[in-house]
Amino acid sequence: MKTILIPTDFSAAANNAARYAFQLGKSIKASLKLCYAVSLPVDASMGHQVAWPLMDYSSLQQDGNEELRKLSLELEAGNGMVLPVEAEHPPVHYAAEIGLLTEVVKQEVKKEKANFVVMGTSGSGALSRFFLGSSSRELMDHADFPILLVPPGVEFKRIEKIAFATDLSEGDIPLIHSLSLFARHFNAEILIVHVSPAGFDSDVHQDKIDAFLTEVTCKVNYPKIYYRHVKDMGVDEGLSWLTRHVAIDLLAMVHRRHHFMQRIFEGSRTKKMAGHLKLPLLVFPSEGPVFL
Fold it and tell me: Which pLDDT score is estimated for 153?
């Protein structure tokens, strides 16, 4: 059985992501694992960790497990569910572990052999509106598994169209194959989107486009794959335009450090992009095997 890992900090955004993951789990028949990272206390003035009694660590962990237990019961009871799915509820497991978010999540992914992670995004600030915070950005930089980011207020609905942003790299083809395995659960369309800046000569680069699409056809056995070229825009601007003008239920991208994804996360238009993106974002790692 597939497994979805759901890190939480018990915020409204994280709880909303857990509800989304629960409905998603029902749709793809996956089990769920809630996890909470009990942060080690840090003395800001000294700049190093403070040695707390083990009993205090244990108490924090017990409190975390109790909150996770309550959240799991709420999910299983169907509280707040907006789109009933006629299927058995997936089992909801949970664990509070001591450590930093990145360490705890990576540990739980390996332990549970999780297929991907679902996280909520916070609802305030500029960059923080896109991510939970610096810890989740760090997780993305070190993850070898997909992460599905769910914006605040986004409710689960049947996934009918997925957009995959590509720069026509050969490494994107196995990711499209992995995405097609996910899309099969919904019989969803996959729209391969290539955004090119002003001055891009499509005639000169047509051979590259044709070669990429031929590889996709040969290596990805899924009939509902289409191609869309968005011209004369930056990547962030083009994807923002696409999500406003095309009915997309989920956007998928590859996180490449020092690559076009970095221009979205760190570029001058990040605030605009974060503010306009109102749909779930599936982030693939650039390295490592991916199983959806």
Answer: 87
Distance of alpha carbon 252 from alpha carbon 258, whole angstroms: 18
Q: How far is CA 153 from CA 121, 122, 202, in A?
A: 10, 10, 39
Q: Which two tokens stand for residue 142?
A: 């070190």
C-alpha span between 73 and 175 (Å, rounded): 34
Distances (CA, A) of 48 to 12, 40, 44, 45, 98: 31, 10, 7, 8, 17
Threshold 0.90, pTM exceeds: no
Please give the order of strands across the beta sheet that includes 281-285: 92-98, 30-38, 2-7, 116-120, 147-150, 281-285, 250-255, 161-166, 189-195, 225-230
Mean pLDDT of 61-76: 90
For 158, phi then psi, to 5°, come to -55, 130
Virtual CA dihedral for 105, 90, 58, 47, nearest 10 degrees? Answer: 20
- Are the beta carbons of 42 and 50 closer than 8 angstroms? yes
- With a pLDDT cut of 70, the percent of the chain lying above it is 74
Domains of the chain, start order: 2-150 (3.40.50.620), 161-285 (3.40.50.620)
Give the amino acid at 210: D
How far apart are the C-alpha atoms of 131 and 119, rounded to whole Å? Answer: 9
